[in-house]
Amino acid sequence: MTAQQRTPQQALGSGFGMRSTPSEVIAGADLSGKLAVVTGGYSGLGLETTKGLAEAGADVIVPARRPDHAREVLAGLGDTAGTITVDEMDLGDVASAGGFGQRIADGDRSVDILINNAAIMACPETRVGDGWEAQFATNHLGHYVMTNKMWPALDADGGARVVALSSTGHKLSDIRYDDIHFTSDYDKWIAYGQAKTANSLFAVHLDALGAEHGVRAFAVHPGGIMTELQRHLPKEEMIAMGWMDEAGNINELFKTPEQGASTSIFAATSPQLDGMGGVYCEDADIANLEDPDNAMGRFFGVKPYAIDAANAAKLWDVSAAATGVNAFV
Length: 329
Ligand code: NDP
Known about the structure:
The chain has about 325 residues and is α/β, with parallel strands linked by helices. It has 9 helices and 10 strands.
């Protein structure tokens, strides 16, 4: 794709906003006969994403590292127009992530929507796989391997969309190519920031590779939402960051999990995004670049490094070398 063909990183004026709900952004869409995969689709905003897609008629597959728990949670959704099924996958284990992707590729259905939603945040230093830092490995490398293995199923019908959940946390760090896995000085927030930048860059380069196949990819910041994601954060830290007060009242800028699913669903289904891709979205619209002069800039917009095409291609090469997986060679 040439630079001229890239979708501008600029709000469309979609008509939606931070309080829009999945049923509003998906209104009128009929996803009957479509197949969606939602990682982490049994908790927080992933659960609401699964629900929104299945209510619009999509059949949804939810790969879970705790499949029994996932089945229990998803059974609680009641009847939806589309089916919801659970498979097994641990994103921190390349063999498991690749195995799930391969099962989808070997199946008899193409994938229309893939939402790479699962993540861990700000955990104590943890190593997985080949001594890899767990947030980068789980949030990025696991999804990288799974998506590449699944590629034939995404490519089959020519109209698939892939959504990678990033975060405003991407502003905490670019990719630390000289020490991605923190051989020293582990910092739980820099590690999360790096992983969320990786999620955005993954969407940018997948879109560059996929566009000629009709497969488009988007990065999404869902907003701030109280979920199980905060499981590693002591209450005092959340109070210090202004996420809640001493009494436990949540900052009013936070969204509900339902509102938090809207940007993923918008990116996955909105006709407003037809023919577009490789951009970072927030509040059910394409985001603008971060405005360095805006005092609220920390919370809105995207840093240039997180959507830079050369940076995205470099990360793809690094990820391919680390995992030995690349569907595009
Ligand atoms: P939750 O913690 O509620 O859900 C995360 C899901 O990921 C869970 O289902 C969890 O499974 C799954 N998961 C974690 N590790 C693995 C693994 N190794 N293999 C497979 N699945 C795994 O988080 P949210 O709903 O809040 O977050 C969803 C996405 O949104 C994340 O990508 C997050 O970074 C992003 N985001 C969230 C924000 C927020 O404020 N909540 C803000 C910005 C971005 P299990 O339950 O079994 O652990």
